[in-house]
Amino acid sequence: MESRVTSLDLKPAEDLSEATRAYFAKCEEKLGLIPNVLLAYAFDEKKLRAFTDMYNDLMLADSALSKLEREMIAVAVSSVNHCYYCLTAHGAAVRQLSGDPKLGEMMVMNYRAADLTPRQKAMLDFAVKLTVTPDRIEEADREALRKAGFTDRDIWDIAAVAAFFNMSNRVAAAVDMRPNDEYHAMAR
Does pTM surpass 0.90? Predict the structure, then answer.
């Protein structure tokens, strides 16, 4: 039984391009599912492509931040925002990438409870401050990241990932986006 994707009555476009159909097939091949966030955006292929292009660039492209670190940012931001979809999906990614189910759960509940390196803690502290009080980010915050070993390019990447998930969390909350059931059992 397939569960609903959002509370909105927006059906996927019937004329999805070959490229989008191939992207969905690749998701099914690699993940065993098409993430509901993609299905939610599929009512408008232009919006779907904008979302996936930005997501893929931020989360999968070359960066000094590891894929795990980027997923940790997604989870820390989503935890502050209480985003059910992203906590479920990206919590599973943290469990999978780290090989540590406990880390994934701690990140979802409170990253400060996790056994993090000082570098990771500085990164997540910055992402959370950017989420909660963006108007209070100042040079001392960027300097703390530099002292933790991040370059200015890394700081850009941390900020961009945090900002993307703040946007995604708000859209997911607004439409009551639901995660795929499969995420709950992944990497446990």
Answer: yes
